[in-house]
Design brief:
With 333 residues, the protein is an alpha+beta fold. It contains 3 helices and 18 strands. It is elongated and about 115 Å long.
Length: 333
């Protein structure tokens, strides 16, 4: 049991790392090697649309980039967001598909063998149920390769690569997003309103209240205390998805690339506008923060005080010398 549990942890960890770099949800399908085995997949993301009751199809390319034959098997899983950072959570042990699952709709692919450098074109076929509600559905198809003669329970473990499948069922879907939080963060990742200088990290937490996967875009226009615009911070330029019923955080810096080397001092206001959906609906939020180089100011004050004390000391010694010289001259007369 202990060995089995350890192997399972290795597989899950490898899968998370293998799939974690791609977006929309932070999954990636890049070449993965383990004990000389490797698979490469493309495209890493498939976007499809279809009407209820229709069939949709796509093609996936899989290549063996190792130096040996691989017996390739596949598995279809649901996934969701783990936390607000976009990190995926594979749902490997779920027996009941989620409300946005496409797992029951995908035609399973048979096991097959790849020779080194061979590219295999794989059909991806989905049958949308006639009673499917309009909205967004998604899942991941994972592929793993083993040398011939070694089954999945053997000691030779191979990582998986996956393709994300996003399907939009046509019709009137619910599109709704809200800004849960708009704040400024310090270098330690904690909320702060007072900064010594730039960069200042602007962070927005948006929630998808609808039933479509959304790719929100955001811009925060920053103005100074006189209402003059000093720059604009763009959010989610990579067009990452926010899944239904989940929240995702986007953090971007206000830095010299935006303010063009301007000296910042005083109170600043950032007005954020987040747009989403086919009709580019918008939600807004505003925050204020201060940029005051208080350590520099404190150092200048200390230096001025020290300089004042030195000048006072010098003047006092000067007056004392003048008085001594004056008294000495009077006694000589």
């Amino acid at each position: 049991m202990k060995i089995t549990s350890t192997i399972r942890r290795i597989i899950l960890t490898t899968l998370a790392l293998t799939l974690a770099a791609a977006s929309p949800m932070a999954f990636a399908a890049t070449p993965t090697t383990n004990s000389g085995q490797a698979l490469e997949i493309g495209p890493p993301i498939v976007n499809l649309k279809g009407d209820p009751g229709s069939k949709v199809a796509a093609v996936i390319s899989l290549r063996d980039v190792s130096t040996a034959k691989l017996v390739v098997s596949n598995q279809i899983n649901d996934f969701t967001a783990a936390g607000d950072g976009g990190t995926p959570k594979l749902l490997l042990n779920e027996t009941t598909p989620g409300p946005n699952s496409i797992v029951p709709w995908i035609t399973p692919l048979p096991q097959f063998t790849l020779v080194p450098q061979q590219i295999q074109k794989l059909p991806l076929n989905l049958k949308i149920p006639a009673n499917a509600a309009p909205g967004g559905y998604y899942g991941v198809i994972r592929f793993s390769g083993q040398p011939p003669g070694i089954n999945s329970s053997g000691v030779s473990l191979s990582a998986s690569v996956g393709v994300l499948v996003f399907l939009r069922v046509n019709g009137t879907a619910k599109e709704s997003m809200s800004i849960q939080q708009f704040t400024t963060l310090g270098d330690n990742g904690k909320q702060n309103w007072l900064f010594e200088g730039i960069p200042v990290n602007l962070s927005v937490l948006v929630k998808n209240n609808g039933n479509l996967f959304e790719q929100p875009g955001g811009q925060a226009v920053v103005t100074d205390m006189f209402g003059k615009t000093i720059g604009a911070v763009e959010f989610n330029e990579g067009q990452n998805y926010v899944l239904p019923a989940t929240a995702r955080r986007f953090t971007e810096p206000l830095d010299n690339t935006i303010v063009s080397g301007k000296f910042l001092f005083g109170k600043y206001t950032a007005k954020l506008t987040v747009t989403y959906g086919d009709s580019q609906q918008a939600v807004t939020s505003t925050l204020t923060f201060w940029i005051i180089p208080y350590r520099l100011i404190a150092a200048i004050i200390i230096a001025l005080v020290a300089l004042g004390l030195i000048i006072r000391f010098v003047l006092q010694r000067y007056r004392e010398n003048i008085l001594r010289n004056t008294r000495g001259g009077s006694r000589r007369r």
